[in-house]
Amino acid sequence: MTRADLDKDPSDVRRMFDAVARRYDITNDVLSLGQDRRWRKDVLDAVAPQPGELILDLAAGTGTSSQPFADRGATVVPCDFSLGMLQVGKKAKPHLAFTAGDGTKLPFADATFDAVTISFGLRNIVNTVAGLSELRRVTKPGGRLVVCEFSHPTNGLFRKVYIEYLMKALPAVARAVSSSPDAYVYLAESIRAWPDQQGLARLIRQAGWASCEIRNLSGGIVALHRAYAR
Hints:
This protein has 230 residues and is α/β, with parallel strands linked by helices. The chain is 43% helix and 21% strand. The chain has helices at 10-20, 24-31, 35-47, 67-71, 83-92, 128-137, 156-177, 183-193, 197-206; strands spanning 54-58, 75-80, 99-100, 113-119, 139-150, 209-217, 222-229. A seven-stranded mixed β-sheet has the order 3-2-1-4-5-7-6, with helices on both faces. The radius of gyration is 16 Å and the shape is globular.
């Protein structure tokens, strides 16, 4: 089993990410045409970590998204439920506190973190509102949430071209560079089925977050959602 289906069975999703772990970062770089680096910088700026803060980076994978928070002087906890991802990450970044955890049952106490963030992982949690509610539970009152996720391009013509790329070109490119290309068929399908910017904002508010702000990146291919714990 190297890919999940849109029912997002946690065991299937975990096995899928274990299978892609070895070449995950380089595959993402190729498929995004290098834009993933810019998106990580946008996430960093949106979280605005301060020295001494404690930050949860959920669905952190190999920790590529986590290191910039540490570089800013914050203490970051990269958390993921794929042991394959965590093993690859720990080998490359042994100084980071990699932690295994399910997004719907986080292994942290209430009101632990100053900020929580998840990049390209919320889409893979079986229950989106449950995952957002768990993130709210472990965040201190007044703490920050930043979600970076694929979204819907705002230009109609560009959106049609983008969907064609997702469903045809993306799996073909993945076959050339990924250690488990079938997983990227799920990636394309899950992006196409994901809510648009306002739809995700409604789910964030439903989970108890306040003052949700939206910023489109790359014409809406990706969107940042920033909110605060009540």
